[in-house]
Each structure stands twice: as structure tokens, then as C-alpha cells.
Specification:
The chain is an alpha/beta fold. The protein has two domains: 6-242, Aspartate Aminotransferase, domain 2 (3-Layer(aba) Sandwich); 244-363, Alpha-Beta Complex (Aspartate Aminotransferase, domain 1). The chain has helices at 6-27, 34-47, 58-68, 86-93, 138-147, 200-210, 231-242, 244-262, 290-299, 329-337, 349-363, and strands spanning 51-55, 76-79, 97-100, 123-126, 153-155, 163-164, 167-168, 175-179, 193-197, 283-286, 338-341. The strands form four sheets. It has a four-stranded mixed beta sheet with strand order 1-9-8-5, sandwiched between helices. A hairpin with a 2-residue loop joins strand 6 and strand 7 (167-168). The radius of gyration is 20 Å and the shape is globular.
Length: 366
């Protein structure tokens, strides 16, 4: 059984992908070719914003967003300790300081009730993360940010495609950032990412930053990076975008079956907050016996993954921040107990039944 099944998806659209790749090979514009502008236009329309800027990865998009906002040494950016390291890594690379706020015990995203207490005179941005497929409480976060005149960067590496009170992820804040890493719900065949905004000036600045700060050929008014999305990856994403909504629906059906069949087994199921939908980048449950369950599932042929088993405030690289075990109890609980089960649009009913049966078999032991 595949934890994430990319082969079935490729088989579904292989002919169209081959045609797209052949077109790029024919015109030979491998860097910033016409597929980049085509993809950006379609993604902006899909999300419902004025501007989309393709980039080399979801990590680079976070860096570009903060550079465009002028974040630098000794500034503070508020985020969560339960996420992939890129979120805080890019803050630190700019010599700013990540300020962690604990997650909500239900959604596992940034808890707005704890946000305002973390804001100081040095705070320059708030960066919530849409973990496992649903966005944070962006309405509440935006309201707090507005009171303090702070920009919000939505790290939507896992929540792209999800809805929040009828609006799409990446259209919910000053800047939206996502990743097209191959295992994401919308992924390419390498690294890739995109930025989204309705702010014309920010969009222009981010476009310049991704090409070495270049405004026009041989003219560089600002510092930038080599952060361009490859044309071949854009071509692949164009075909994947055509089936994206159908794949989201399939993911949601798999999750609904998991919810039904695992609901009485004594584990904590993922909860989708009011007004949200989830694209289920992962389907994650909580159990204090996580490691034992994972080992037993492996013996039964069911793969599982413990994402972010060490939260960021306990990572050695961030020891200088001086945060201690126990400071972020919700993040630590999810780190200690979270177990992600197979999730992809192409799981068959029989495979889902096998996962649930294996889970039931394992839990009967406890």
C-alpha cells in the first residue's frame, strides 16, 4: 500500500503531461517560459486574488514574502512550534527572531487566543500555518493583526485548495504562500511554490526578489535570490490543476470513511473547524500509544508517519531561543501523539477498509 500514491495520478494524466513536457522541450524556454505566466494566471483565478508569483519552492516563497515586507535583523515574526522547519528557518535566515505561539487543541493550528500576548514593538509579521490541510482561524488572526497594523503571511504549504468561510486558502491575508513539493495535494515533480497577494506593490517586489532583485534586464534595485519556478514544473502543474478539485473531493471521501470507521477506537480524530474545509494533506490521529500503534501497523503492511515528532522549540538549532519543554503543551501533545495514516485520492475502498481493520486489530491489544 502506498502512503502517498503518485503513480496512479500520473497514470490518469500521463498523456497530457507528456504533451506539456514535449511542448517545453520544443520551445526550449526552460527558465521563465510561457507556462509560468499561464500557470500564474490560472492559480490567481483559482484562489481569487490579483497576483500569483511562481517560485522555486515553498521554502523560498516564505523567504521572498518576508524580504518583500522588509523583515530583517532583530525583527520578530510570530508563528507556531508545530510545523515543518521551513516556517521558522526562513525567519532565522533573515536574522529575525521566531516567536512561537501554541496551537489550538482542536484544529492544531495557531491559537488566536494566545496571539495578542506575543505581540511586541518588534513584531513585524504573523505567520500562521495551515497544518494537515485546513487553514488556521484566519478571521480572528486578521482582526488581531489589523489592530496592531501587522501583515499576515499564510503558510499554506499543506492547506492550498481549502476554504475558510467561503474563501480559498492563500486569499486570506496580506500574502499567501504555498508549496508544490511532490507529496502536497497539488504537487509537481520536483520543488516548486507560489505566492499570492492583492497588493500590487508587494507583487512587483516579490517578482523582482525571485529573479535576483531584477526590475528589468541588468537592473537590480533591490537584493533578491534565485527563486524562480522551472518551466517544466509549471507545465506539469497546469495539468494537475485540471484535476485538483476532483482529487480534493476524493481525499475528503477517504477522510469521511476514516472518521466513520475509526471514531470508536479510542483515538483522537482530526477536527475541521467551523467554516473550514480540509484538503487532507495528511489524515492524522492522536494516541498516547502512537509508537506502538505505528510499529504494529507496519507489521500488518500499513504505512504510517509521525510528522514533526520534535516541535520546533525543542530543535537544537533553535536552542538559543531559550524555550523549554512544557511551554507549548498543545504542540507537544500533537508532536508526541500524532500519527498520519495513508491518504491520497486513489486509495481504494478495499485499501481504506484494510487500514481501518488493521487499526482496529492493533487497538484491541490495548
Amino acid at each position: 500500500m502506498q502512503f502517498i500514491d503518485l503513480k496512479s495520478q500520473q497514470k490518469r494524466i500521463r498523456e497530457k503531461i507528456d504533451h506539456r513536457i514535449a511542448t517545453v522541450l520544443e520551445h526550449g524556454n526552460y527558465i521563465m517560459g510561457p507556462e509560468i505566466a499561464e500557470l500564474e494566471a490560472k492559480l490567481a483565478e483559482y484562489v481569487g486574488v490579483k497576483h500569483c508569483i511562481g517560485a522555486a519552492s515553498g521554502t523560498d516563497t516564505l523567504l521572498i514574502a518576508m524580504m518583500a515586507l522588509g523583515i530583517s535583523m532583530d525583527d520578530e515574526v510570530i508563528t507556531v512550534p508545530y510545523t515543518w522547519i521551513s516556517t521558522a528557518e526562513m525567519i532565522t535566515l533573515l536574522r529575525a527572531k521566531p516567536i512561537f505561539v501554541d496551537i489550538d487543541p482542536n484544529s492544531w493550528n495557531l491559537d488566536p487566543a494566545k496571539l495578542e500576548a506575543a505581540i511586541t514593538s518588534r513584531t513585524k509579521a504573523i505567520m500562521p500555518v495551515g497544518i494537515f490541510g485546513q487553514v488556521a482561524d484566519m478571521e480572528s488572526i486578521n482582526a488581531i493583526a489589523a489592530r496592531h497594523n501587522l501583515p499576515v503571511i499564510e503558510d499554506a504549504a499543506q492547506s492550498f485548495g481549502a476554504l475558510h468561510h467561503g474563501r480559498r486558502s492563500c486569499a486570506l491575508s496580506t500574502i499567501g504562500s504555498t508549496s508544490f513539493f511532490p507529496t502536497k495535494p497539488l504537487g509537481c515533480y520536483g520543488d516548486g511554490g507560489a505566492l499570492f497577494t492583492n497588493d500590487d506593490q508587494l507583487a512587483e517586489t516579490m517578482r523582482q526578489i525571485r529573479v535576483h532583485g531584477q526590475a528589468r534586464k541588468h537592473y537590480h534595485p533591490i537584493l533578491g535570490i534565485n527563486g524562480r519556478l522551472d518551466t517544466l514544473q509549471a507545465a506539469i502543474l497546469l495539468e494537475k490543476l485540471e484535476i485538483f478539485d476532483d482529487e480534493i473531493a476524493k481525499r475528503q471521501r477517504v477522510a469521511a470513511t476514516y472518521n466513520e470507521k475509526l471514531g470508536n477506537l479510542g483515538v483522537t480524530l482530526p477536527r475541521v473547524a467551523y467554516g473550514n474545509t480540509s484538503v487532507y494533506a495528511q489524515y492524522t490521529v492522536l494516541s498516547p500509544r502512537r509508537d506502538e500503534i505505528s510499529a504494529a501497523l507496519t507489521k500488518l503492511g500499513v504505512p504510517s508517519v509521525s510528522y514533526y515528532a520534535v516541535p520546533l522549540h525543542r530543535q537544537p538549532v533553535f536552542a538559543y531561543l531559550g524555550r523549554q519543554a512544557g511551554e507549548f503543551p498543545c504542540a507537544e501533545k500533537v508532536s508526541n501523539e500524532g500519527l498520519s495514516l495513508p491518504m491520497n485520492p486513489y486509495l481504494t475502498d478495499q485499501e481504506v477498509d484494510l487500514v481501518c481493520s488493521a487499526f482496529a486489530t492493533v487497538l484491541k491489544q490495548y
